[in-house]
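Let us begin with a simple case.
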Amino acid sequence: MTVENEARRVDIETKLAYLEDTVLTLNEVLARQQKQIDQLESKIRQVVERVQQMSALAEAAAPAADEKPPHY
């Protein structure tokens, strides 16, 4: 193998090592973001359920729109 070919091979192997490291790093970030997304979706579901419960309670407690208040 010539010196030029050897230098080219080393350069390619170096680039490959950096690419592998980048892929692993991106995979870790992606996994962390997916975990965050899952947690946020869960919290949103909880908030939606709570708002629906509060809305149902408010509707049950509020007088009907056509009903006059007792002081009339």
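The second case is a distinct protein. As before, the sequence precedes its structure tokens.
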Amino acid sequence: MTGYGRAVEHLGPDVAREVGNRALRVLADLLEDTDHICTFTPADAPIGDGGVQAAVNTLIADPFHAETLTPAVDWPHIVREALPARFIASWRRPQTWADGTGPRRLADGLTDWIVAHLAHLWPADADCWTVRVNESKVYENIYLDLAVRVGDRLWLLHLGVCD
């Protein structure tokens, strides 16, 4: 955990969710370029009798559905690995997003801030899965869907880019 852990430890879950969600929107705005749009959204639903797969499908927009759920470990690592690097339009202005530049430091800091808020909602050892969505229709060109189980609720973190 980065130094941000202490900054959010006093927050209630609703505040952590809202602040984390706002940080995701800011990071999406920062990473958007003229030819792509970032959609970074967390959502949650109860896990009913249908189990995890059914809960994931309630959180994915129709007509899409989860084809596979692959068990994963260490959701913080998965999120940090994806954000911001997977969503940077580096082919447009690579010098802007190089390590150590102002925009890259800001994006990396926002990522740490987001992970700190999600960690307030999700235990580090929570059951999690990466989700592969059916590709029968157009879906985000670059995406990561991560499902995280916390008690009787399932969270879906969608990180995507579309042209």
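The longest helix spans residues 102-121. The beta strands are 37-46, 66-72, 128-133, 142-150, 153-162.
Keep these points in mind for the review questions at the end of the chapter.
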